[in-house]
Design brief:
The chain is α+β, with helices and mostly antiparallel strands and 373 residues long. The protein has helices at 19-28, 87-90, 126-139, 147-154, 203-209, 219-234, 243-252, 258-265, 271-275, 321-340, 350-353, 361-368, and strands at 11-15, 32-39, 42-47, 58-63, 66-71, 94-103, 106-110, 119-124, 157-161, 187-191, 195-200, 215-216, 282-288, 294-301, 311-312, 315-316.
């Protein structure tokens, strides 16, 4: 531990307006600060300079296929999760990976430099931290590590928030990914009616926090703060069975008739994969200028719900919506475990909320397992 910082694992109390000092300190240290802001009818991560830009007093109401905001009270973090996640900033939807230039009859290849400014994110939830751990497993720990992801990930500073209330579409507890922040945060915040309690999660977090106004927490204050996510967990209304049970029941009947019923509703719009914090499918596109001297290679997000995702020399392999939905569900909850040692779902509920027709992953798994219970 740096002698100038607060020790990892300690708890301190700050007044709510003093959160501004934390933002100011992060900016002074050279971070680009992102935090929750109202944008296009949702709460999303965006550049944040002042706590007055935050959705103070706003609450989200989520149901299958429905997301609405309303004002209620004066809490800073009473929303849950919006359509975006950390994935958008660590594994961007569109990023240049290579550029080639023709010079005097030969080609010169250059790779883009990593982002020059480190990123600090305010308001991350436990489920999204679990999603980042999954992305780390896929993009960093395999045989081919993604250099762009690594650069963005290594410089990331996270101030996470312990959830005080779940959305109706959340099922994080059954995925062991929330609502309490247990790892992966530099600082973890608990919101109480009059103040914040902050837990130091890393040496870097202790150094940043020591630069602002704070006071030690009593044992009673720590216990009160820890009750916040525990009470939220009691209000969760959705769940999945254990990952091993889900894996086995999905493998047991790949031709289950319920896939036909899902396919009648599914639009194959890819909203579930675009909003998912762990889906990592991408495609590579090459473009050249009119002279043919400059060529740029870009990586773009892709989705297994599109026709060309399974295109091979003989044509599209998964021709029907039924086949595409089955591929997504069985990979996310079953074969992902074989590949990466974990489920690909963290229970954030985004795929339920942002599905235009309200297809509910937890309900579909229950229906698919009905004849195999």
């Amino acid at each position: 531990m740096n002698s100038m910082g607060l020790p990892t694992g300690c708890y301190v109390r700050i007044d709510k307006p003093d959160l501004q000092g934390l933002l100011d300190e992060l900016r002074r240290l050279g971070y680009r600060v992102l935090g929750p802001r109202l944008s296009q009818g949702a709460i999303q991560l965006a550049d944040l300079e002042s706590i007055q830009q935050m959705p103070i007093g706003w609450v989200d109401e989520q149901q299958p296929g429905r997301y609405r905001l309303r004002q209620q009270g004066s809490n800073y973090f009473d929303y849950v999760v919006g359509p975006g996640s950390l994935k958008r900033f660590l594994f961007p939807p569109q990023v240049e990976v290579l550029q080639s230039l023709s010079l005097h009859g030969s080609f010169q290849f250059t790779a883009p430099k990593p982002p020059p400014q480190p990123l600090a994110v305010i308001g991350v939830r436990a489920c999204d931290l679990a999603a980042v751990r999954i992305l780390d497993r896929v993009l960093l720990e395999g045989p081919a590590s993604d250099a762009d992801y690594r650069a963005r990930r290594q410089s990331l500073f996270v101030l996470a928030v312990n959830c005080a209330r779940p959305a109706a579409t959340c099922f994080c507890a059954s995925m062991n990914s929330g609502p309490a922040v247990t790892e992966g945060a530099d600082l973890a915040l608990f919101e109480l009616p009059t103040h914040f309690v902050l837990e130091v999660g890393s040496e870097r977090g202790g150094e940043v926090l020591s630069a602002i106004k704070w006071r030690p927490c009593s044992t009673r204050e720590v216990a009160e703060a820890q009750q916040v996510p525990r009470q939220a967990e009691k209000r969760l209304s959705r769940a999945l069975p254990s990952r091993e049970r889900v894996r086995d029941l999905l493998r047991a009947d790949l031709e289950h008739e319920h896939y036909d019923e899902i396919a009648q509703r599914c639009l194959a719009c890819s909203n579930c994969t675009m909003s998912c914090p762990t889906c990592f499918c991408s495609s590579i596109h090459d473009t050249s200028d009119l002279s043919g001297e400059m060529c740029t290679r870009e990586r773009l997000w892709a989705s297994c719900f599109t026709d060309d995702h399974s295109y091979m020399n003989s044509g599209t392999v998964r021709k029907s919506i039924r086949a595409r939905y089955r591929q997504w569900l069985t990979h996310k909850l079953s074969s992902w475990i074989d590949q990466f040692g974990t489920s690909g779902c963290v229970g954030c509920g985004r795929c339920i909320t942002w599905c235009p027709v309200g297809i509910d992953l937890t309900a579909e798994v229950a229906a698919l397992g009905g004849t195999n219970s």
